Amino acid sequence: MLALRPNCECCDRDLPANSPEAMICSYECTFCSACVEQVLLNVCPNCGGGFCSRPIRPHIARRAGVSIAFQPATKKRVYSKYSREEMRAFAATLQAIAPQVR
Prior knowledge:
This is DUF1272 domain-containing protein. The chain is of the alpha+beta class. The chain has helices at residues 33-38, 84-94; strands at residues 22-24, 30-32, 52-53.
């Protein structure tokens, strides 16, 4: 189950569980859409993969016990170990390769 991390690992912007601005890679690295577009160029600085929109967990339990109320988002903030400049430089080396073949 996705942890639904609460922040962008690049700029630390709040990304609540229902944020349509949250983007994730296949390892659940979490960034805001602005950083994915402007800094990361759709290249995860941790794994080199691409990003997609993070799903939004249902607010209403339409099945017993299945909603954000029963499986809340994590409150643990995650920060990248790379600087913005390091992220941008890494992304520049891979941006020309489609995410599905990286």
